[in-house]
Amino acid sequence: MDRSTQFAKFGARAAALLDQWQQQNHRPLTAPAWLDTGGSGASLASVFVRDSDPGRTTRRMIIKLCSPDGDSSMEPGRLIAARRSLPNGESSFPRAHLVEQLYDPMPVDDAWLMFQGFAGNDETMVTLSTILRQRRMPGVAGQITRSLLADWNPDEKWDGEMTAAAFVSELLDRRLEPEEPLAVWVRDKLGLDLETAWIRPGRTNAGPLPNPVHLTGSCPLAEHTLDYPMRGRAHGDLHPGNIMVPKEPDADIGRYVLIDLSRFDEQALLARDPMHLLLCLVADFLPHLSDDARAELLELLVGRDTPGLLIPQGLARTVDEVRKAPDDWLRQRTISGQWPGQWLLSMQASALMFTARARYDARDRWWFFRLAAEAAGAYLRSVDAYEPGEAVLVPGPREAEPAVVEAVVAAVKLPQQAAPPDAKRETKPESTPAPDPVRIPAPAPTPVQESVASGLAAAAADESLPDAAPSTPAQALPDALPALLIDLRNTFADRQGEVREYHAGSVAARTLGLIREQSERGQADLKALLTSRHDALDEEARNRLDAVLGRLAHVTEAANAPGFSYEQPLFLRDLAHRALVVALDTLLESTRQAALDHEAGEADGAGQATDPIRPEGARTPSG
Fold first, then answer.
1. Using CA atoms, how far apart are residues 275 and 269, in angstroms rounded to an integer?
2. For a tag site, which of 133, 166, 209, 535 has the least CB within 10 Å?
């Protein structure tokens, strides 16, 4: 029987080899469920294997096709190395907490097929990413951090002193090379030279901070030496998708298993794993936080006193549990005073890793960049080495300038999309209705609008415009912006209602298609309006509307999540379902706030003395 078709997603070559493996070893594989790998380039399937060996039983197994390049291609050897690296000669940690290689790996061209399992590897184990909203999350995160240090590294190592800049550079590895995503984003979106030493992030009155990506030459971090960089065993890519935990809420919080050990290192800097895990958990909350809450969270992470009233309670507890988890491990070491500085430097490096990731929007990436700079500044203060020089203002990420032709075409198309608020939709005899576009109710035509529209149409037709334009697009479309915000809210409130009515993990493909189409159309419409009204909007208004654009992008991404596939297990479909609900919630809140701010701005322009939304004298958001 040819079973290769059930593994076609591995590719024809790997599927044929798996069919051959089953026949030769008398190990039939059944019920494959494809797992999300978080964009690592690998492919994973959870299967049941029935072994002909009487000493084995039918069990669940994870088959992994490693990506053919990079660290993943070395995973078979590193998994063996991880399981053979015994803390103080004891094998209890690898047996309890590391994935096991059930059968020998099989080469597939330049990659590997791996057959993995672990104790309790059945339906009772899920990834940590599926319990992020459960009450036990802070305790689980803290216990995993404690165990990684105290249980996996009771015999931490030392490999000589190093500068603070070298510490951060080692963690970042090749990420600061000129053509890597981090360097490109900092250079293109922030307009920042990597060799600039000091910056003022966000505003002119901000205190100077070291440029977190400047790690060469006479950079501030190169002036201080770490006497005892703590090293030992580390996973190397610790995130919630690489940790398996019991799915029962009342299960033992000390029970967990690490998977994907392709970056295992026996001589790694130990502060990296717990910090990267913590920032992964922070990143999950970040899109739902206001600017003020983000500012408080930043203060909390770098160790400054903050009321913390705006930070979600579960997130604040998670930060606290992870930060205090090493305490007992450190008390046994006379060099424990070295840890706080290495924690801050690891925060700087890990925050820059998140800055480089395109799956986060510009607002989130900018927050992580600021966190990296604040962590670097906090480190220099902790060692009495904070001596700022001349600082360059970095106001934040800039949007890519639209091409002139695209801007003209968008401005011409806006009136064509307009329809009166009570316009009826035309019914089409198709079996599957086309997605409803986000519509902009247009004001009644005026002579000014007609003049502008004709001028724009002439430009689109490559005709010359008159020397003096009769008006600006901002004056031509005075009511389109609030109308678009209202229509976005109405449209996605309908979609949100539909999504909430589905049973867990069962959102229909048609609904997902509607959401994708409407969010993409909404982004195009809002970008066109922002282009046409750019000079009429102040910086705060533009930031609010940029936030709406970011939330629309999040909705598109959430509706495209691989977890919605019916080939995925139910818990992954449920996770994708809940993530989409959250994305829609935050979009609706963002559009509501932008509409309120726009109304307040209009009233202020008409002579209102104070901001009706923010009391006079209240602190402006700085997150």
1. 11
2. 535
* 21: exposed, middle or buried (Cβ count in 10 Å: 0-12, 13-18, 19+): middle
SS3 170: helix
Least confident span in 35-39, 41-45, 366-370, 489-493 = 35-39
3-state secondary structure of 87: helix
The encoded tokens of residue 86 equal 């015994």
Closest listed residue to residue 479, CA positions, set 421, 518, 424: 421
Q: How far apart are CA 533 and CA 471, in angstroms?
A: 12
- In the sheet where 29-35 sits, what is the strand order? 29-35, 43-49, 59-65, 111-117, 100-108
Task: List all residues 6 or more positions away from 314 whose beta carbon is below 8 Å from its beta carbon.
Answer: 133, 135, 137, 138
Rounded to an integer, what distance in angstroms lies between the CA atom of residue 167 and that of residue 425? 61
Crossing angle, helix 539-559 and helix 480-501, to 10 degrees? 30
CB proximity list for 492: less than 8 A, separation 6 or greater: 515, 518, 519, 555, 584, 587, 588, 591
Give the residue among 541, 554, 185 at the shortest CA–CA distance from 359.
Answer: 554
Burial of 144 (0-12, 13-18, 19+ CB in 10 A): buried
CA distances from 67 to 32, 114, 172, 334 (A): 19, 11, 21, 43
The residue that leads in pLDDT, 281 or 40, is 281
Cα–Cα distance measured from residue 579 to residue 574, given in angstroms and rounded to the nearest whole number: 9
Task: Report d(CA 424, CA 570) in Å as an integer.
Answer: 40
Instruction: Give CA–CA dist 483/479, Å, rounded.
Output: 6
Q: Give the whole-angstrom CA distance, residue 350 versus residue 369.
A: 10
Both structure tokens of 444: 């009644």
Looking at residue 6, the DSSP 8-state letter turns out to be G
pLDDT digits (tens, 9 = 90+) for 553-601: 889 888 888 878 766 666 677 778 888 888 898 898 888 888 877 776 6
The DSSP string of 179-224 is TSHHHHHHHHHS---TT--EEEESSTTSPPEE-TT--STT-GGGG-
CA proximity to 484, closest of 437, 438, 546: 438
Question: What is residue 99's DSSP assignment?
Answer: -
Give the closest residue to 62 by CA, choosing from 27, 84, 83, 33: 33
Degrees (nearest 5) of the Cα angle 179, 234, 339?
95
What distance lies between CA 440 and its chain's CA centroid? 31
Instruction: Please name which of 109, 131, 76 lies closest in space to residue 245, comparing C-alpha atoms.
Output: 131
